Amino acid sequence: MSADDDARRLQAANPTGWFEELYAQADAGTASVPWDVPHPQPHLVEWAASSDGTGQRALVVGCGLGRDSEFLASRGYEVTAFDISPTAIAAVQARHPDSKVSYVVADLLNPPAEWHRGFDLVVENMTVQALPVQMHAEATAKVSWLTGSTLLVLAVARDEGPAPDGPPWPLTPSEVEAFAADGLTTRSTRRDNGRWVAEFGRGN
Predict the structure, then answer these.
(1) Would you call 35 helix, strand, or coil by DSSP?
(2) CB 58: neighbour CB atoms within 10 A?
(3) Within the chain, what is the greatest distance between any pair of CA atoms?
(4) What are the pLDDT digits (tens) for 56-84?
(5) In the chain, how many domains are there?
């Protein structure tokens, strides 16, 4: 069974708890995590190439095993990264024992109240699309709620129409534009090789 098959089987039984099940099975050596890759997301690297995060707080949604979080820390950001899976957080802390990133267990659908608009930069990299389509609106609203200044959304793209079998459930144009909520406005949206790269902001 492939890593993607492992994910689909677990997700079908438990739309949010499957993340913990998958990481626990990976920890036991009976499954693999399909997004456990050695490098940060290339579109994030491209976006942050000219940025200096010194003095800015960043939040990574659904951080998994830390590739994007560690990259942002290397750019000077003070990074908080969260995942719903305690096993994932334990694994990433073990993988990066000297990390400057604050890794915490948290639920996107019920985040800490003090996180409201608490971060200069929020990075949402393919977490919403890992949830069933009927959960996208709620999860999207929470991501926007967390953003104090800038939100970067990275996701697989699809056109409007019937939802595919997943996971994942790639985002439609209207689902991407839905991140422009809670006072955020769209700064830029583009498709690049089948993926969304979208930036939203508050104020300027």
Answers:
(1) coil
(2) 25
(3) 48
(4) 999 999 999 999 999 999 999 999 999 99
(5) 1
